[in-house]
Amino acid sequence: MRLLGVVFFACTVAIGFAQSSMHKYQLVFLMLPVGAPQIAESQKQEFMQAHNYFLQGLWKSGKSRAIGPLMDAGRLGEIVILEEKDRDAAAKLLADEPGIKRGLFEANILEFWTEAKAFGHADKFTDLEPMWFGFLDIAPNAPKIDAKTSTSLMDGHLGNFQRMADKGQLLLAGPIAGGRKIRGLIFFRGIPKSTILEEMKQDPFVQRGVFRVNLMKWTVSKGSFRGLETKKP
Q1: DSSP letter (8 states) at residue 119
Q2: Coil, helix or strand for 82?
């Protein structure tokens, strides 16, 4: 199944940009740990102010390319995309975040690759817009795919990503470095969840039951994403 990681890396190269322009980022889930300590009601406002001040500092410094809360995502609270060289550097940067220091949050860090030009820069940290964050993971009971079969499915796989990028739906995609269960990340804006799921059904790896699509609603500062390059004339 390791071949699938190579396949997904190839797809990000094919949707309008060259491998030489790929850049490494750290995607951080700020999560509520099991058995997290409770914070007193009288301290919540002060804590949230300190938490938001820390995140805004990452944004102002340019160390974070996108920050925002997930909606209705259970223990997953926020996503922070950092421009750091590796997971250890990201963890060190986040060590002083108030929630992590107090054991209220834990950081789950995924290293991924994508096109740097897909990111923009928001004018205002608190001016948020909704979008969809998702990931492709190995489906339960996924069939084994050999090299020959993967090659035969590649055209449709790459073409579906390019088609969604050309329509302005797919803003960003990238493979997870060393991913086993989660293989890649996808970001959409301006369309409902049902439309995304229908569009993704055209991916032959989804059709064959290899990949499963998971989507979560995310709010992020406007301007954080430019979107992928397209092949439109």
Answers
A1: B
A2: strand
Give Cα separations from 104 to 32, 34, 48, 160, 166 (angstroms): 6, 10, 12, 40, 41
Dihedral pair phi/psi, residue 219, rounded to 5°: -115, 135
- Tens of pLDDT, residue by residue over 123-176, are 999 999 999 999 999 999 999 888 888 888 878 877 888 899 899 899 998 888
The answer to whether residues 114 and 229 touch, using CB atoms and an 8 Å cutoff, is no
Nearest to 31 by CA among 110, 89, 92: 110
Residue 175 to residue 177: CA distance in whole angstroms:
6
Q: Which residues contact 37 (CB under 8 A, 6 or more apart)?
A: 102, 103, 104
Rg (the chain; Cα; Å)? 18
Residue 209 amino acid letter: G
Provide the CB-side half-sphere exposure for 181 (13 A, CA): 4
Write out pLDDT tens, residues 85-133. Answer: 999 999 999 999 999 999 999 999 999 998 888 899 899 999 999 999 9
Q: What is the pTM of this model?
A: 0.87
Residue 138, both tokens: 């190995």
* Helical pair 147-166 and 3-14, crossing angle rounded to 10 deg: 30
